[in-house]
Amino acid sequence: xxxxxxxxxxxxxxxxxxxxxxxxxxxxxxxxxxxxxxxxxxxxxxxxxxxxxxxxxxxxxxxxxxxxxxxxxxxxxxxxxxxxxxxxxxxxxxxxxxxxxxxxxxxxxxxxxxxxxxxxxxxxxxxxxxxxxxxxxxxxxxxxxxxxxxxxxxxxxxxxxxxxxxxxxxxxxxxxxxxxxxxxxxxxxxxxxxxxxxxxxxxxxxxxxxxxxxxxxxxxxxxxxxxxxxxxxxxxxxxxxxxxxxxxxxxxxx
Amino acid sequence: xxxxxxxxxxxxxxxxxxxxxxxxxxxxxxxxxxxxxxxxxxxxxxxxxxxxxxxxxxxxxxxxxxxxxxxxxxxxxxxxxxxxxxxxxxxxxxxxxxxxxxxxxxxxxxxxxxxxxxxxxxxxxxxxxxxxxxxxxxxxxxxxxxxxxxxxxxxxxxxxxxxxxxxxxxxxxxxxxxxxxxxxxxxxxxxxxxxxxxxxxxxxxxxxxxxxxxxxxxxxxxxxxxxxxxxxxxxxxxxxxxxxxxxxxxxxxxxxxxxxxxxxxxxxxxxxxxxxxxxxxxxx
Lengths: 254, 284
Description:
The structure holds two protein chains of two kinds.
Chain A: E1 7-18, E2 21-32, E3 36-40, H1 47-54, E4 61-66, E5 78-81, H2 95-100, H3 114-126, H4 142-155, E6 160-164, H5 172-189, E7 192-196, H6 200-206, E8 209-214, E9 216-222, H7 223-226, H8 229-236, H9 248-253
Parallel strand pairs in A: 3-7, 3-8, 5-6, 6-7
Antiparallel strand pairs in A: 1-2, 1-4, 8-9
Helix pairs in contact in A: 3-4
Chain B: H1 3-14, H2 23-48, H3 52-60, H4 62-72, H5 76-96, H6 102-123, H7 132-136, H8 144-173, H9 175-180, H10 185-207, H11 212-226, H12 230-255, H13 259-283
Helix pairs in contact in B: 2-8, 2-10, 2-11, 2-12, 3-5, 3-6, 3-11, 4-5, 4-6, 5-6, 5-10, 8-10, 10-11, 11-12, 11-13, 12-13
């Protein structure tokens, strides 16, 4: 289990409003460095907004600090896997184009840099998607696309990986494969990971820290201690109990 | 002999046709070729960003831009470009600060600029006589000053496309994802809208305000039917736009039809041809 001590991200009195409607109110919370932290809550609880605050994509009041292990303010290297990449599937773009273009200054019509192709192939290998290299992006299945998005997020060698409902559009086999991959990569690279998820089975099996939101902060802490029926009742408004089964992949790493 | 004389001579030598021996046709040919190549390159992003309606709004804002120029005794081509850019940036500004859908925002601008143009023209009836060339385009009458402006625009756009192609592709794919990769989405959205507005207003000279959007989207849409990756998409779009501009003198001069219509009909024929090719490719 990861040592959950110094925070990588600190929210202090964070509030977000859109057109006068409060989406997040007075949140003070911490995301431990090296942890897998899940933002949990019902629809409209402000989970994705909190992720966008981390990405500095929405205006907010309060303070968000990114900290090093020594407690110094740092600029993180983000990796981001969006909820659904709602894109034009007719666009002629291969998986390798998609992975190379964020890092190449030269326009793609002048060719792709060899070193970037090799790095992209390395990341595709990491997410077990090496066979997708030349495939058109628009022809990928939901699970394949999520793995390519993960490979793209890993390309920048992030120390902070953000995932917004990463398994919401894929079937149970794809979900299992994706979560196990994440677990294995996290174990090797030790970055801080923040997952937005409404799927409590994913949270219970993969997150070691949770922040429960419903516009305000309901609770935060170690997953096993926090996801109690009382807290889940406070977050979701009805009785929920979670059962932890031993996860084979997790045991393998530990 | 000035620089242009050398250029006309060179193009005349390269094109050993009877029609290519008149200076005004060669000038039109160069202007149209530059605009076609530009539209081919920029059209890729117009299709990716689903900006066809945006481009239509800019071209229809020409009514007001021209009317304002004629009304205040200014060069209508200058007021047309300035007004087009203002409308383009205005659409992006409103779109970013409202919950309304993009097509609703553009629809509001579209109706407003047309109504404003008609209001000005109907109030000053004499103005309507001058509008025909803007409706259908009149590339054969371009002057050397206009050609110089087109060459400058072409160079500016080449530099812009060179430095932003990958980033614009990323934004077209997914804004938040592009932002997370460090792309300043706001800057590129505004700058692309401004460039597109300038290209659209210049292209009105070539094919008229009714057909400008077709000049932008047809080569890019045809290229999508053939290209297999984002690099070849660019070359196909440029090449097909070039072919359309190369074939217009034959179509236009042989059958005596309007230049703009000839260019677009050639581009349409290419689109349907490539669509059939695409269909056959996926049936195999």
